[in-house]
Design a protein that fits this description.
Blueprint lengths: L5 E5 L11 H15 L3 E7 L10 E2 L4 E4 L5 E11 L4 E7 L1 H4 L16 H18 L6 E5 H4 L2 H6 L12 E6 L7 E2 L3 H5 L12 E2 L2 E3 H8 L2 E4 L2 H6 L3 H4 L3 H6 L4 E3 L27 H13 L10 E5 L8 H11 L5 E6 L3 H13 L4 E5 L3 H10 L2 E4 L9 H7 L3 E5 L2 H6 L13 E3 L4 H17 L1 H13 L4 H23 L2
Parallel strand pairs: 1-2, 1-7, 2-6, 7-8, 8-12, 12-13, 14-15, 14-17, 15-16, 17-18, 18-19
Antiparallel strand pairs: 3-5, 4-5, 5-6, 9-11, 10-11
Bound molecules: adenosine-5'-diphosphate and alpha-D-glucopyranose (GLC).
Adenosine-5'-diphosphate binds next to helix 1, strand 15 and helix 14.
Length: 495
């Protein structure tokens, strides 16, 4: 075995403690997979209001976090562990920043106006905690804009700190759309020095861009699929940072996310009506029936049922679904949707549900249980994203034998192989153009395959269910990149 590493892993959301999307799934699973490989991982996240402190162990002394002109702020720290394995997770408790109902936005969906300060605080608190624990990390693994400034902090504010003398950094971009762009005054709170406020590091349009600074300073940058790693170097996917990313492409890698099969497997899923697996699919029929009942749809076994679970935001292709919906409603299908997000979409799809109660049903809200039930009870899963760094739901769908219908982008393109009627190969249905016509015709093709080519459909189902996207494999890829980051760091030290 390679020598074990000490890894400080910071994330703004971690399953099962707080989740708005896939980042939480990754942050809850990857540290465990790394620990299984023999590494020592410490996870740090905020103690949001929703996280119950009663089962956590409080740290005796408060933690001082230097915040420039705001002075030193004192945080409480609670310790827990990731379920299943004894990976420690520390919660940074600071009522004024994290004692709110939302993670990043208020109930109306508006970003909190002090998100810059909140996440500078988290980023620094994780480093301060590391010092307090006398945990000298080999690697600081930052995730998304929330902790993206850590690589820069290591090279500035903490450059001469004994704890981090040999620490290398890796930044994972889970979604380039969200970059953490703020008023430049935050530079003082970061305490990194104004010399870093320039177009090659932190500055973007006279403001500060956390992700940009992170990309400039991380020893290794990863994103969550190979295809997305290529896409973000181009203007349509770069969200203004494509040039900056191209300048750093020599240290950019794509590592596909894995799946926690202890949570997402129809053979062990406690939330579904009847468990099933490849050798006995009868449970899936029961799950479909229960799902139809749950959504007050006519219980019809032979009508193809299409599921959608996700944030109702443009990224997920909801505009394409909206554009195609009237035509789709002329087909003999049922669609169930679970999600929250943009107000127009919540209203629009609720309205469609009222108009087509026999064909379309939606649950506007967040429900992990229902997400599992949709995966199990649907025949097909719709994920027509405009861009998708990795996407987890299509991979979950494969395990549940619910064939994905996706747009060929990012992780969707890397994980889903188009059905080929000539060879009967594939594990789903893909389209390329971001148009509602393309979506409509692909859905039509998928349901026709379901109806008229049951053997080919079942073969694909079997193939999909047999495929594995284990975290172990992804963790090994991260392990290699950690060593690579350490090598880069040492070259810098001894230059
Ligand atoms: P993203 O991180 O962009 O939202 P992913 O596909 O990576 O997309 O991950 C989304 C995760 O969030 C999945 O685990 C999915 O089941 C879950 N999810 C999204 N919306 C909901 C919802 N309304 N209710 C329950 N789970 C949801
Ligand atoms: C992001 C992406 C999603 C990815 C997830 C976890 O939220 O939108 O595609 O699966 O992060 O990496």
């Amino acid at each position: 075995m390679k020598s074990p590493l000490k890894i400080l892993f910071t994330a703004s959301e971690v399953v099962p403690f707080a989740k708005t999307g896939g980042l939480a799934d990754v942050a809850g699973a990857l540290p465990k997979a790394l620990a299984k490989l023999g590494h020592q991982v410490v996870v740090v996240m905020p103690r949001y209001y929703s996280i119950d402190r009663s089962e956590l162990e409080p740290m005796k002394e408060p933690l001082g976090v230097p915040m420039g002109p705001m002075g030193e702020l004192w945080a409480g720290v609670y310790k827990g562990s990731l379920p299943g394995l004894n990976v420690p997770i520390y919660f940074i408790d600071y009522e004024q920043f994290f004692g709110r109902s939302g993670l990043y936005t208020d109930e109306s969906g508006f970003s909190y106006c002090d998100n810059d300060v909140r996440f500078v605080f988290l980023s620094k608190a994780a480093l301060e905690l590391s010092k307090r624990l006398e945990f000298k990390p080999d690697i600081v693994h930052a995730n998304d804009w929330h902790s993206a400034i850590q690589p820069l902090l290591l090279k500035s504010r903490y450059a001469f700190d004994e704890t981090f003398k040999e620490t290398a950094s890796l930044l994972t971009i889970h979604n380039l759309q969200h970059q953490g762009q703020f008023f430049k005054g935050i530079v003082d709170v970061m305490e990194v020095g104004w010399e870093h406020f320039n177009p090659y590091e932190l500055e973007a349009m006279d403001g500060v861009n956390f992700l940009k600074g992170g990309i400039a300073h991380a020893d290794v940058v990863t994103t969550v699929s190979r295809k997305y790693a290529h896409e973000i170097q181009t203007p349509p996917f770069g969200f203004g940072l494509d040039g900056h990313i191209c300048a750093h492409r020599h240290k950019l890698y794509g590592v596909l996310n894995g799946v926690d099969y202890e949570e997402w497997s129809p053979s062990v899923d406690p939330y579904i009506a009847k468990q099933y697996d490849i050798d006995d699919m009868s449970g899936k029929v029961v799950c479909k029936k229960e799902l139809q009942k749950h959504f007050n749809l006519p219980v019809q076994e032979d009508v193809p049922l299409i599921g959608f679970v996700g944030r109702l935001v443009e990224q997920k292709g909801i505009g394409l679904i909206a554009g195609a919906i009237e035509s789709l409603m002329h087909l003999d299908i049922q669609i169930v949707m679970l999600g929250t997000g943009e107000k127009w979409a919540e209203g629009f799809f609720s309205d469609i549900a009222n108009r087509y109660p026999e064909k379309f049903a939606c649950h506007i809200g967040y429900s992990n249980e229902l997400a599992h039930q949709i995966e199990a009870g649907s025949d097909l899963f719709l994920m027509p994203s405009l861009f998708e760094p990795c996407g987890l739901n299509q991979i979950y769908s494969l395990r549940y034998g619910t064939l994905p219908i996706v747009r060929a982008t990012g992780g969707l393109d890397d994980t889903i192989h188009n059905y080929d009627p000539a060879t009967k190969e594939g594990n789903g249905f893909k389209f390329y153009d971001a148009t509602h016509e393309a979506l409509y015709h692909t859905v039509k093709w998928a349901i026709e395959t379901y109806r008229y080519e049951p053997e080919a459909y079942q073969l694909m189902q079997k193939r999909a269910m047999e495929a594995r996207f284990d975290w172990e494999k992804s963790a090994e890829a991260y392990e290699d990149l950690y060593y690579h980051a350490l090598y880069t760091k040492r070259v810098q030290i001894y230059k």
